[in-house]
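(Fold this chain)
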Amino acid sequence: MRPSFESLLARYSFPTAKYGSGETPLNLLPLLYKGAAKYDVRKVMSFIESGMFGEMRLERVEVIGLVHELMNSDLISGKSQLSTKSRISILRNFVSWCDDNAHLSLATLEECFLSWAKLMHNRIISGEIRKVTAAGYLSALGAIFDKVLGFNLGLRYKTGISKHRQERISEGFAKSSKQNLEEVFNFGAFLCDIADGLPVTAIWGNLPVLIPLRVGGHLTEWSRLRPAEAVKRITDANQPAYRKRETEAMRAKYVAEHSFRTRHAIINLRLEAELLIFISQTGMNLAQAYTLERTNYKFISAIGGYEMKGFKNRASSISLGKVHTEYRHHFLKYIKWRDAIFTNSSSTLLFPIINVQGRADYQAPSFGAIRSRCKLLGMKLYGPRELRKSRSNYFLRESQNPELAAKASQHSVETFYRSYHQPSHQIALIEVSRFHAAHDASLAAPGPVVCVSGNPTMADEISPYTPEADCLTPSGCLFCEQHRDLDTEDHIWSLVTFKQLKMIELSKADLHTEKLSNPAFITITRINQKLKYMQSLSKKTIEWCAIATKKISVEDYHPKWRGFIRLQEIAS
Protein backbone atom coordinates (compact mmCIF):
# COMPACT_ATOMS: atom_id res chain seq x y z
CA MET A 1 0.00 0.00 0.00
CA ARG A 2 1.33 3.43 -0.95
CA PRO A 3 2.05 5.59 2.16
CA SER A 4 0.02 8.76 2.56
CA PHE A 5 1.56 12.19 2.23
CA GLU A 6 0.92 12.86 5.94
CA SER A 7 2.78 9.71 6.98
CA LEU A 8 5.74 10.59 4.73
CA LEU A 9 5.79 14.11 6.15
CA ALA A 10 5.92 12.72 9.68
CA ARG A 11 8.53 10.10 8.70
CA TYR A 12 11.11 12.69 7.64
CA SER A 13 10.33 15.38 10.21
CA PHE A 14 12.21 16.30 13.41
CA PRO A 15 9.68 15.98 16.26
CA THR A 16 11.91 17.43 18.99
CA ALA A 17 12.70 20.63 17.08
CA LYS A 18 11.14 23.88 18.28
CA TYR A 19 9.89 26.51 15.87
CA GLY A 20 8.88 30.12 15.91
CA SER A 21 5.62 31.35 14.45
CA GLY A 22 7.37 32.40 11.24
CA GLU A 23 9.56 29.31 10.77
CA THR A 24 9.03 26.43 8.37
CA PRO A 25 9.51 23.03 10.08
CA LEU A 26 12.61 21.05 9.11
CA ASN A 27 11.93 18.07 6.87
CA LEU A 28 13.95 15.87 4.49
CA LEU A 29 11.01 14.69 2.39
CA PRO A 30 11.79 17.07 -0.55
CA LEU A 31 15.13 15.30 -1.02
CA LEU A 32 13.27 12.22 -2.29
CA TYR A 33 11.78 14.08 -5.27
CA LYS A 34 13.78 15.25 -8.27
CA GLY A 35 13.86 19.05 -8.47
CA ALA A 36 12.27 19.62 -5.06
CA ALA A 37 15.52 20.13 -3.12
CA LYS A 38 16.17 23.56 -4.63
CA TYR A 39 12.58 24.75 -4.33
CA ASP A 40 11.29 27.30 -1.79
CA VAL A 41 10.90 25.43 1.52
CA ARG A 42 7.75 27.41 2.35
CA LYS A 43 5.92 26.14 -0.74
CA VAL A 44 7.58 22.87 -1.67
CA MET A 45 5.41 20.60 0.50
CA SER A 46 2.17 21.71 -1.12
CA PHE A 47 3.66 21.15 -4.58
CA ILE A 48 4.91 17.68 -3.63
CA GLU A 49 1.41 16.83 -2.43
CA SER A 50 -0.07 18.12 -5.71
CA GLY A 51 2.27 15.88 -7.73
CA MET A 52 4.29 18.68 -9.31
CA PHE A 53 7.58 16.78 -8.83
CA GLY A 54 6.30 13.40 -9.94
CA GLU A 55 6.92 10.13 -8.12
CA MET A 56 9.31 9.59 -5.26
CA ARG A 57 12.83 8.45 -6.29
CA LEU A 58 12.85 5.04 -4.63
CA GLU A 59 16.64 4.60 -4.98
CA ARG A 60 17.08 7.52 -2.58
CA VAL A 61 14.83 6.22 0.17
CA GLU A 62 17.52 4.19 1.92
CA VAL A 63 20.25 6.85 1.93
CA ILE A 64 17.93 9.74 2.89
CA GLY A 65 16.37 7.55 5.58
CA LEU A 66 19.79 6.85 7.13
CA VAL A 67 20.77 10.52 6.95
CA HIS A 68 17.50 11.52 8.62
CA GLU A 69 17.93 8.92 11.34
CA LEU A 70 21.44 10.18 12.09
CA MET A 71 20.52 13.88 12.12
CA ASN A 72 17.41 13.32 14.21
CA SER A 73 19.44 11.29 16.71
CA ASP A 74 22.01 14.10 16.95
CA LEU A 75 19.26 16.63 17.58
CA ILE A 76 17.70 14.50 20.31
CA SER A 77 21.14 14.04 21.87
CA GLY A 78 21.53 17.79 22.25
CA LYS A 79 23.12 18.98 19.02
CA SER A 80 22.28 22.57 18.22
CA GLN A 81 19.14 23.05 16.14
CA LEU A 82 20.93 25.84 14.29
CA SER A 83 23.67 23.38 13.32
CA THR A 84 21.05 20.89 12.16
CA LYS A 85 19.32 23.57 10.10
CA SER A 86 22.64 24.55 8.52
CA ARG A 87 23.51 20.94 7.65
CA ILE A 88 20.10 20.42 6.04
CA SER A 89 20.67 23.52 3.90
CA ILE A 90 24.03 22.14 2.69
CA LEU A 91 22.44 18.73 2.10
CA ARG A 92 19.74 20.35 -0.05
CA ASN A 93 22.44 21.99 -2.19
CA PHE A 94 24.18 18.64 -2.63
CA VAL A 95 20.98 16.77 -3.58
CA SER A 96 19.98 19.60 -5.93
CA TRP A 97 23.29 19.15 -7.75
CA CYS A 98 22.71 15.39 -7.90
CA ASP A 99 19.31 16.00 -9.50
CA ASP A 100 21.07 17.39 -12.58
CA ASN A 101 24.45 15.64 -12.56
CA ALA A 102 24.37 12.28 -10.77
CA HIS A 103 22.27 9.27 -9.81
CA LEU A 104 22.07 9.43 -6.01
CA SER A 105 21.65 6.25 -3.98
CA LEU A 106 23.38 4.58 -1.05
CA ALA A 107 25.62 2.65 -3.45
CA THR A 108 26.70 5.78 -5.31
CA LEU A 109 26.87 8.16 -2.33
CA GLU A 110 30.67 8.23 -2.12
CA GLU A 111 31.05 8.75 -5.87
CA CYS A 112 28.46 11.55 -5.86
CA PHE A 113 30.12 13.27 -2.92
CA LEU A 114 33.58 13.22 -4.51
CA SER A 115 32.16 14.51 -7.80
CA TRP A 116 30.46 17.33 -5.92
CA ALA A 117 33.79 18.06 -4.22
CA LYS A 118 35.38 18.49 -7.68
CA LEU A 119 32.72 21.08 -8.43
CA MET A 120 33.67 22.88 -5.20
CA HIS A 121 37.32 22.77 -6.26
CA ASN A 122 36.50 24.34 -9.65
CA ARG A 123 34.42 27.05 -7.96
CA ILE A 124 37.34 27.85 -5.66
CA ILE A 125 39.68 28.24 -8.65
CA SER A 126 37.19 30.46 -10.49
CA GLY A 127 36.71 32.60 -7.41
CA GLU A 128 33.00 31.82 -7.03
CA ILE A 129 33.47 30.51 -3.51
CA ARG A 130 36.11 30.83 -0.81
CA LYS A 131 38.15 27.79 0.09
CA VAL A 132 37.18 28.04 3.75
CA THR A 133 33.48 28.00 2.77
CA ALA A 134 33.86 24.97 0.50
CA ALA A 135 35.86 23.15 3.16
CA GLY A 136 33.08 23.88 5.66
CA TYR A 137 30.45 22.39 3.32
CA LEU A 138 32.50 19.27 2.68
CA SER A 139 33.34 18.83 6.34
CA ALA A 140 29.68 19.10 7.40
CA LEU A 141 28.39 16.59 4.83
CA GLY A 142 31.45 14.36 5.06
CA ALA A 143 30.89 13.81 8.77
CA ILE A 144 27.32 12.66 8.09
CA PHE A 145 28.16 10.44 5.11
CA ASP A 146 31.07 8.81 6.96
CA LYS A 147 28.64 7.49 9.56
CA VAL A 148 26.09 6.48 6.94
CA LEU A 149 28.73 4.51 5.00
CA GLY A 150 30.57 3.25 8.08
CA PHE A 151 33.89 4.84 7.09
CA ASN A 152 36.65 5.40 9.62
CA LEU A 153 38.81 7.61 7.37
CA GLY A 154 36.87 10.77 6.60
CA LEU A 155 35.50 11.28 3.09
CA ARG A 156 36.60 14.90 3.15
CA TYR A 157 40.24 13.82 3.27
CA LYS A 158 39.74 12.29 -0.19
CA THR A 159 38.59 15.60 -1.63
CA GLY A 160 41.92 17.42 -1.39
CA ILE A 161 40.17 20.46 0.07
CA SER A 162 41.04 21.11 3.68
CA LYS A 163 40.48 24.08 5.92
CA HIS A 164 43.88 25.19 7.07
CA ARG A 165 44.02 26.62 10.53
CA GLN A 166 44.52 30.34 10.21
CA GLU A 167 47.33 32.12 11.95
CA ARG A 168 45.89 33.55 15.13
CA ILE A 169 47.86 36.80 14.79
CA SER A 170 49.47 38.12 11.66
CA GLU A 171 53.01 39.40 11.31
CA GLY A 172 53.50 42.50 13.39
CA PHE A 173 51.32 41.20 16.22
CA ALA A 174 53.04 43.47 18.74
CA LYS A 175 50.98 46.37 17.51
CA SER A 176 47.82 44.41 16.76
CA SER A 177 47.60 42.73 20.19
CA LYS A 178 47.79 46.09 21.96
CA GLN A 179 45.41 47.68 19.48
CA ASN A 180 43.00 44.75 19.83
CA LEU A 181 42.78 45.24 23.59
CA GLU A 182 42.14 48.97 23.16
CA GLU A 183 39.42 48.26 20.58
CA VAL A 184 37.74 45.77 22.91
CA PHE A 185 37.74 48.32 25.75
CA ASN A 186 36.27 50.95 23.41
CA PHE A 187 33.59 48.51 22.29
CA GLY A 188 32.77 47.71 25.92
CA ALA A 189 32.46 51.41 26.68
CA PHE A 190 30.12 51.74 23.69
CA LEU A 191 27.88 48.95 25.05
CA CYS A 192 27.76 50.68 28.44
CA ASP A 193 26.82 53.95 26.72
CA ILE A 194 23.84 52.21 25.11
CA ALA A 195 22.78 50.65 28.42
CA ASP A 196 23.08 53.97 30.28
CA GLY A 197 21.37 55.89 27.50
CA LEU A 198 18.20 53.77 27.45
CA PRO A 199 16.64 53.91 30.92
CA VAL A 200 12.92 53.24 31.41
CA THR A 201 12.09 56.94 31.03
CA ALA A 202 13.86 57.07 27.66
CA ILE A 203 12.16 53.88 26.43
CA TRP A 204 8.64 55.19 27.08
CA GLY A 205 9.48 58.86 26.46
CA ASN A 206 9.48 61.00 23.35
CA LEU A 207 11.16 60.01 20.08
CA PRO A 208 13.88 60.21 18.98
CA VAL A 209 16.02 59.06 21.91
CA LEU A 210 19.49 60.60 21.98
CA ILE A 211 22.15 58.29 23.45
CA PRO A 212 25.28 60.25 24.43
CA LEU A 213 28.60 58.55 23.62
CA ARG A 214 31.73 59.07 25.69
CA VAL A 215 33.83 59.32 22.53
CA GLY A 216 31.73 62.32 21.52
CA GLY A 217 28.45 62.77 19.69
CA HIS A 218 25.36 60.66 20.18
CA LEU A 219 23.17 57.96 18.63
CA THR A 220 19.76 59.08 17.41
CA GLU A 221 17.18 56.31 17.90
CA TRP A 222 13.75 56.59 16.26
CA SER A 223 12.59 53.06 17.19
CA ARG A 224 11.48 52.13 13.67
CA LEU A 225 9.88 55.52 13.09
CA ARG A 226 11.33 57.29 10.07
CA PRO A 227 13.01 60.64 10.83
CA ALA A 228 10.75 63.57 9.95
CA GLU A 229 13.24 64.93 7.42
CA ALA A 230 13.08 61.61 5.53
CA VAL A 231 9.27 61.62 5.19
CA LYS A 232 8.26 63.05 1.82
CA ARG A 233 4.72 63.97 2.92
CA ILE A 234 6.23 66.32 5.52
CA THR A 235 9.19 67.77 3.63
CA ASP A 236 7.71 68.05 0.12
CA ALA A 237 6.11 71.47 -0.31
CA ASN A 238 3.97 70.13 -3.16
CA GLN A 239 2.16 67.66 -0.90
CA PRO A 240 -1.41 68.62 0.05
CA ALA A 241 -1.76 70.09 3.55
CA TYR A 242 -4.22 67.41 4.66
CA ARG A 243 -1.68 64.66 3.88
CA LYS A 244 0.92 66.43 5.97
CA ARG A 245 -1.59 66.71 8.84
CA GLU A 246 -2.52 63.02 8.52
CA THR A 247 1.13 61.96 8.55
CA GLU A 248 1.99 64.12 11.55
CA ALA A 249 -1.05 62.79 13.42
CA MET A 250 -0.02 59.18 12.71
CA ARG A 251 3.53 59.91 13.87
CA ALA A 252 2.26 61.55 17.06
CA LYS A 253 0.05 58.54 17.73
CA TYR A 254 3.04 56.21 17.22
CA VAL A 255 5.17 58.21 19.67
CA ALA A 256 2.36 58.34 22.25
CA GLU A 257 1.78 54.57 22.13
CA HIS A 258 3.84 52.98 24.89
CA SER A 259 3.95 49.37 23.73
CA PHE A 260 6.35 46.74 22.48
CA ARG A 261 5.03 47.40 18.96
CA THR A 262 6.45 50.92 18.94
CA ARG A 263 9.45 50.47 21.25
CA HIS A 264 10.73 46.95 20.55
CA ALA A 265 13.65 48.29 18.49
CA ILE A 266 15.24 50.33 21.29
CA ILE A 267 14.32 47.73 23.93
CA ASN A 268 16.09 45.05 21.88
CA LEU A 269 19.05 47.39 21.35
CA ARG A 270 19.64 47.61 25.09
CA LEU A 271 18.99 43.89 25.57
CA GLU A 272 21.62 43.03 22.94
CA ALA A 273 24.10 45.37 24.64
CA GLU A 274 23.36 43.90 28.08
CA LEU A 275 23.70 40.34 26.78
CA LEU A 276 27.13 41.09 25.30
CA ILE A 277 28.24 42.80 28.52
CA PHE A 278 27.05 39.77 30.52
CA ILE A 279 28.98 37.38 28.26
CA SER A 280 32.13 39.50 28.47
CA GLN A 281 31.91 39.44 32.27
CA THR A 282 30.95 35.82 32.94
CA GLY A 283 32.66 34.09 30.01
CA MET A 284 29.47 32.13 29.33
CA ASN A 285 28.76 31.09 25.75
CA LEU A 286 25.88 32.67 23.85
CA ALA A 287 23.63 29.60 23.76
CA GLN A 288 23.77 29.29 27.56
CA ALA A 289 23.53 32.99 28.34
CA TYR A 290 20.56 33.62 26.07
CA THR A 291 18.48 30.79 27.53
CA LEU A 292 19.08 31.78 31.18
CA GLU A 293 15.89 32.45 33.09
CA ARG A 294 15.22 35.43 35.32
CA THR A 295 15.74 34.27 38.88
CA ASN A 296 17.29 35.48 42.13
CA TYR A 297 20.95 36.43 42.14
CA LYS A 298 23.71 36.51 44.69
CA PHE A 299 27.21 37.98 44.51
CA ILE A 300 29.74 36.22 46.72
CA SER A 301 32.95 38.14 47.45
CA ALA A 302 36.06 36.74 45.78
CA ILE A 303 39.55 38.02 45.07
CA GLY A 304 39.29 40.73 42.43
CA GLY A 305 35.51 40.63 42.12
CA TYR A 306 32.48 38.48 42.84
CA GLU A 307 31.35 34.92 42.21
CA MET A 308 27.95 35.40 40.60
CA LYS A 309 25.25 32.79 41.26
CA GLY A 310 21.62 32.38 40.32
CA PHE A 311 19.12 30.77 42.73
CA LYS A 312 15.87 29.15 41.63
CA ASN A 313 15.14 28.08 45.16
CA ARG A 314 17.05 27.50 48.37
CA ALA A 315 18.26 24.08 47.31
CA SER A 316 19.43 24.71 43.76
CA SER A 317 21.84 27.29 42.40
CA ILE A 318 23.83 27.81 39.25
CA SER A 319 27.22 29.47 39.04
CA LEU A 320 27.23 32.16 36.38
CA GLY A 321 30.94 32.90 36.63
CA LYS A 322 33.33 35.34 38.24
CA VAL A 323 32.69 38.99 37.44
CA HIS A 324 34.44 42.28 38.14
CA THR A 325 33.39 44.27 41.20
CA GLU A 326 31.90 47.08 39.12
CA TYR A 327 29.57 44.72 37.25
CA ARG A 328 27.49 43.99 40.35
CA HIS A 329 26.02 47.50 40.38
CA HIS A 330 25.52 47.46 36.60
CA PHE A 331 23.74 44.08 36.62
CA LEU A 332 21.41 44.97 39.49
CA LYS A 333 20.52 48.20 37.67
CA TYR A 334 19.76 46.13 34.55
CA ILE A 335 17.52 43.75 36.54
CA LYS A 336 15.44 46.70 37.79
CA TRP A 337 15.15 47.96 34.20
CA ARG A 338 14.26 44.53 32.83
CA ASP A 339 11.54 43.95 35.43
CA ALA A 340 10.08 47.42 34.87
CA ILE A 341 9.93 47.00 31.08
CA PHE A 342 8.58 43.43 31.11
CA THR A 343 6.13 43.76 34.03
CA ASN A 344 3.23 42.40 31.99
CA SER A 345 5.25 40.02 29.82
CA SER A 346 5.05 36.25 30.11
CA SER A 347 8.71 35.79 29.17
CA THR A 348 10.87 34.22 31.87
CA LEU A 349 14.19 34.82 30.10
CA LEU A 350 16.88 36.96 31.68
CA PHE A 351 17.36 38.65 28.30
CA PRO A 352 13.85 38.51 26.77
CA ILE A 353 14.58 39.88 23.31
CA ILE A 354 11.27 40.74 21.66
CA ASN A 355 10.55 38.52 18.68
CA VAL A 356 8.83 40.40 15.86
CA GLN A 357 9.79 38.14 12.93
CA GLY A 358 8.58 34.77 14.13
CA ARG A 359 12.05 33.71 15.29
CA ALA A 360 12.10 30.60 17.48
CA ASP A 361 12.77 31.09 21.19
CA TYR A 362 15.79 28.77 21.08
CA GLN A 363 17.48 30.94 18.45
CA ALA A 364 19.88 33.45 19.97
CA PRO A 365 20.03 36.94 18.45
CA SER A 366 22.50 37.79 15.71
CA PHE A 367 23.09 41.24 17.27
CA GLY A 368 21.89 43.03 14.16
CA ALA A 369 21.01 46.18 16.14
CA ILE A 370 24.51 46.49 17.64
CA ARG A 371 26.07 45.57 14.30
CA SER A 372 24.29 48.36 12.42
CA ARG A 373 25.30 50.96 15.04
CA CYS A 374 28.92 49.80 14.91
CA LYS A 375 28.86 50.15 11.13
CA LEU A 376 27.40 53.63 11.46
CA LEU A 377 30.20 54.68 13.85
CA GLY A 378 32.98 52.86 11.99
CA MET A 379 33.59 50.67 15.04
CA LYS A 380 34.57 47.01 14.99
CA LEU A 381 31.92 44.64 16.33
CA TYR A 382 33.08 42.06 18.86
CA GLY A 383 30.66 39.16 19.03
CA PRO A 384 30.25 36.72 21.92
CA ARG A 385 33.13 34.48 20.84
CA GLU A 386 35.55 37.39 20.39
CA LEU A 387 34.58 38.85 23.76
CA ARG A 388 35.13 35.52 25.51
CA LYS A 389 38.47 35.13 23.74
CA SER A 390 39.58 38.62 24.77
CA ARG A 391 38.47 37.97 28.35
CA SER A 392 40.40 34.69 28.55
CA ASN A 393 43.57 36.19 27.10
CA TYR A 394 43.30 39.19 29.42
CA PHE A 395 43.14 36.78 32.37
CA LEU A 396 46.21 34.94 31.06
CA ARG A 397 48.06 38.18 30.49
CA GLU A 398 47.37 39.45 34.01
CA SER A 399 47.75 36.19 35.94
CA GLN A 400 50.33 34.31 33.84
CA ASN A 401 48.37 31.22 34.90
CA PRO A 402 46.95 29.07 32.03
CA GLU A 403 44.87 26.95 34.43
CA LEU A 404 43.18 30.04 35.87
CA ALA A 405 42.59 31.52 32.41
CA ALA A 406 41.08 28.24 31.17
CA LYS A 407 38.84 28.02 34.23
CA ALA A 408 37.69 31.60 33.69
CA SER A 409 36.65 30.72 30.13
CA GLN A 410 34.98 27.49 31.35
CA HIS A 411 37.26 25.26 29.27
CA SER A 412 40.10 22.83 29.70
CA VAL A 413 43.64 24.15 29.27
CA GLU A 414 43.92 22.20 25.99
CA THR A 415 40.73 23.73 24.58
CA PHE A 416 41.80 27.19 25.72
CA TYR A 417 45.12 26.99 23.89
CA ARG A 418 43.57 25.40 20.80
CA SER A 419 40.60 27.73 20.32
CA TYR A 420 40.96 30.85 22.44
CA HIS A 421 44.60 31.68 23.10
CA GLN A 422 46.09 34.66 21.26
CA PRO A 423 49.85 35.22 21.57
CA SER A 424 50.85 38.43 23.35
CA HIS A 425 53.96 40.28 22.25
CA GLN A 426 54.65 41.58 25.76
CA ILE A 427 54.34 38.14 27.35
CA ALA A 428 56.50 36.62 24.61
CA LEU A 429 59.26 39.14 25.31
CA ILE A 430 59.12 38.41 29.04
CA GLU A 431 59.23 34.64 28.48
CA VAL A 432 62.11 34.90 26.00
CA SER A 433 64.04 37.08 28.43
CA ARG A 434 63.42 34.63 31.26
CA PHE A 435 64.51 31.72 29.10
CA HIS A 436 67.76 33.37 28.10
CA ALA A 437 68.41 34.46 31.67
CA ALA A 438 68.07 30.84 32.78
CA HIS A 439 69.74 29.01 29.88
CA ASP A 440 71.91 31.36 27.83
CA ALA A 441 75.57 31.39 28.74
CA SER A 442 75.96 35.04 27.73
CA LEU A 443 75.31 37.77 30.28
CA ALA A 444 74.81 41.51 29.93
CA ALA A 445 78.08 43.39 30.33
CA PRO A 446 78.91 47.06 30.99
CA GLY A 447 81.32 47.10 28.03
CA PRO A 448 80.83 46.53 24.28
CA VAL A 449 81.09 42.75 24.72
CA VAL A 450 79.17 39.75 26.07
CA CYS A 451 80.06 37.82 29.24
CA VAL A 452 79.90 34.08 29.88
CA SER A 453 80.35 34.35 33.64
CA GLY A 454 79.75 36.82 36.41
CA ASN A 455 83.21 36.16 37.90
CA PRO A 456 85.65 38.70 36.35
CA THR A 457 89.19 37.43 35.73
CA MET A 458 91.96 39.61 34.32
CA ALA A 459 93.61 38.42 31.12
CA ASP A 460 97.31 39.00 30.52
CA GLU A 461 98.12 42.35 32.10
CA ILE A 462 99.58 44.73 29.50
CA SER A 463 100.71 47.34 32.00
CA PRO A 464 100.01 48.47 35.56
CA TYR A 465 97.63 51.04 34.07
CA THR A 466 95.39 48.48 32.36
CA PRO A 467 91.70 48.99 33.35
CA GLU A 468 90.63 46.42 35.94
CA ALA A 469 88.09 43.73 35.03
CA ASP A 470 85.50 44.30 37.76
CA CYS A 471 82.12 44.12 35.94
CA LEU A 472 81.74 47.84 36.66
CA THR A 473 83.83 49.79 34.15
CA PRO A 474 83.20 49.25 30.40
CA SER A 475 86.92 49.36 29.59
CA GLY A 476 87.65 46.60 32.08
CA CYS A 477 85.44 44.18 30.13
CA LEU A 478 87.90 44.28 27.22
CA PHE A 479 90.62 42.81 29.45
CA CYS A 480 88.53 40.07 31.09
CA GLU A 481 88.83 36.36 30.28
CA GLN A 482 85.04 35.98 30.50
CA HIS A 483 84.26 38.39 27.67
CA ARG A 484 83.19 37.25 24.20
CA ASP A 485 83.00 39.17 20.94
CA LEU A 486 80.04 38.72 18.59
CA ASP A 487 80.26 38.26 14.84
CA THR A 488 77.61 40.90 14.15
CA GLU A 489 77.50 44.31 12.51
CA ASP A 490 75.93 45.82 15.63
CA HIS A 491 78.78 44.60 17.86
CA ILE A 492 81.43 46.10 15.57
CA TRP A 493 79.50 49.39 15.47
CA SER A 494 79.48 49.34 19.29
CA LEU A 495 83.25 48.70 19.44
CA VAL A 496 84.08 51.50 16.99
CA THR A 497 81.78 53.92 18.84
CA PHE A 498 83.37 52.99 22.18
CA LYS A 499 86.77 53.61 20.60
CA GLN A 500 85.59 57.09 19.58
CA LEU A 501 84.52 57.76 23.18
CA LYS A 502 87.98 56.79 24.43
CA MET A 503 89.63 58.98 21.79
CA ILE A 504 87.66 61.97 23.08
CA GLU A 505 88.80 61.13 26.61
CA LEU A 506 92.40 60.81 25.42
CA SER A 507 92.23 64.19 23.69
CA LYS A 508 91.45 65.80 27.03
CA ALA A 509 94.38 64.18 28.84
CA ASP A 510 97.27 66.23 30.19
CA LEU A 511 99.85 66.74 27.44
CA HIS A 512 102.63 66.04 29.94
CA THR A 513 101.17 62.60 30.77
CA GLU A 514 102.80 59.60 29.10
CA LYS A 515 100.41 58.00 26.56
CA LEU A 516 101.31 54.46 27.54
CA SER A 517 100.18 55.10 31.09
CA ASN A 518 96.78 56.43 30.02
CA PRO A 519 93.95 53.83 30.43
CA ALA A 520 92.09 55.37 27.47
CA PHE A 521 95.07 54.80 25.16
CA ILE A 522 95.44 51.22 26.41
CA THR A 523 91.72 50.63 25.74
CA ILE A 524 91.96 52.08 22.21
CA THR A 525 94.91 49.79 21.48
CA ARG A 526 92.90 46.80 22.73
CA ILE A 527 89.94 47.71 20.49
CA ASN A 528 92.23 48.10 17.45
CA GLN A 529 93.63 44.61 18.11
CA LYS A 530 90.14 43.16 18.30
CA LEU A 531 88.98 44.88 15.11
CA LYS A 532 92.10 43.77 13.23
CA TYR A 533 91.61 40.17 14.31
CA MET A 534 87.89 40.19 13.46
CA GLN A 535 88.60 41.66 9.99
CA SER A 536 90.99 38.79 9.32
CA LEU A 537 88.15 36.30 9.74
CA SER A 538 85.90 37.31 6.82
CA LYS A 539 85.21 39.89 4.13
CA LYS A 540 81.85 40.49 5.76
CA THR A 541 83.57 41.81 8.89
CA ILE A 542 85.75 44.17 6.80
CA GLU A 543 82.58 45.65 5.30
CA TRP A 544 81.02 46.04 8.74
CA CYS A 545 84.11 47.87 10.02
CA ALA A 546 84.01 50.23 7.04
CA ILE A 547 80.32 50.92 7.58
CA ALA A 548 80.86 51.54 11.30
CA THR A 549 83.74 53.94 10.60
CA LYS A 550 81.60 55.86 8.11
CA LYS A 551 78.79 56.11 10.67
CA ILE A 552 81.15 57.55 13.26
CA SER A 553 82.42 60.12 10.74
CA VAL A 554 78.88 61.51 10.41
CA GLU A 555 78.30 61.27 14.19
CA ASP A 556 75.94 58.31 13.89
CA TYR A 557 76.90 56.67 17.18
CA HIS A 558 75.80 53.36 18.69
CA PRO A 559 72.89 53.91 21.12
CA LYS A 560 74.84 52.32 24.00
CA TRP A 561 77.53 55.04 23.89
CA ARG A 562 75.75 57.93 22.21
CA GLY A 563 74.77 59.60 25.48
CA PHE A 564 78.30 59.36 26.92
CA ILE A 565 79.77 60.96 23.80
CA ARG A 566 77.23 63.80 23.91
CA LEU A 567 78.13 64.46 27.55
CA GLN A 568 81.84 64.57 26.70
CA GLU A 569 81.15 67.02 23.87
CA ILE A 570 79.04 69.25 26.12
CA ALA A 571 81.68 69.19 28.85
CA SER A 572 84.35 70.27 26.38
